[in-house]
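Data card: per-record layout.
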Amino acid sequence: MKAPAIARRDGCRAAAQTLQSFDGPLGAYVHVPFCSRICPFCPYNKVIAERTLVHRYFSALLREIDWYAQAMGRPFDSLYVGGGTPTLFPGELAEVLERIPVSGERGIEVLPTHATPERLDRLAAMGFDSVSIGSQSFNPEVLYRLGRPYGAEASRVAVSNARERFATVDVDLIVDVAWAKERRLAGAFLADVASCMEMGVDQVSTYPLMRFGYTPFGKAHHDRRLEHQVLGAAADLAEAGGYERRSVWTLNRIGSPSYTSITRPRYLGMGAGSASFAGKDFFVNHFGVETYIGAVMDGRLPMAKRIHLGRWAGATYDAFWQAYAGGLDFTALSRSYGVPASALLAALSTPLVLTGAAKARGSQLRLTRRGFDHYHDLERFVTYHFIEPLWAEMLAEHLAEPDAAQGRARWVTEGEARRGRAWSVAERFFERPPY
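The structure for this 435-residue chain is written out next.
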């Protein structure tokens, strides 16, 4: 009986040590890696739900949450729940929310078929005030190609139901310009954007389809110039309809709050496949569900990787996500990383102003449309050269796990992921032992 008690102390001690790495207000992210079916385009950490595995997973998740909550001593500033399909298990989700102290907004991703009045009322009663409806499109053929388990009308009804119940409603849309070149799909994406604005949603997230090599969709060439044109046309629609382009891929109703996840300055990830950014450290939890459960139940923090960025790389990473949200705040960077790091980034940003990609506003830079186009290309590069190799490496944990209890992500195509040299160099220089 003594071993579990010692294990809990070890986990709590490691959680406290991790929290010491954070240098500012802290949001919480919780990952629920279960789906009832696998969408072929989605690269995120997920497995098919099986009841026994789900029960064991949430038991481990609650223990990890308790370690951090005990060490925090104060509420998180915000909560974001993603997946997977986090709304599959509302009962377990309610218990998760009871264990996480949060002083600010609470957001969650919602599958359109789950956005019934009854289920949305239950989410609101749990304390969620923001939702992201994963519509992806209102066009039947686009939904079919994406493998989504619902029709266009169900997606519209979901958005309408959410608008009546939450302070902030985001709708996710996917754009693939390769499809837009086809006559019968030409204009489908812009029609989707217009539909969202007609329904009065607070935010439209317009994500270009990322073709990860390890997914069934596989790799593909991207027509970046056409993507710039299509996203620019969406921005024009926004300006005409009372919306604004608030980040590279989001359009917001003027005066409405933003729905954000990893663009928060600092966030702590909990659950299998989650990540954390502390300012000078980046942490990744185990992706393998069985591996994650085993670590937690053995009393160990389920951290698989710790990337110690330090001052200079940390400031660069921070600036990268600030730029996604439309600009750079050198005063904020100076507070977190010191004047030299902030001054260097300011100097390196000078060409953005000279070429018209950004405009200076005091100690801040704001991206112009040209700047958004450049960042779109940079985001694509970072996704394929850093994120995909990292996730492919972590998803390999599933392939090493037994098939019992569905612990394996069978959809992962082994060996087809991009192997970014940039990520290999980053690992070599920055990876440190986990806490």
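Known properties of this structure: The chain has a mean pLDDT of 92. The chain has two domains: 2-253, 311-432.

See the next section for split statistics.
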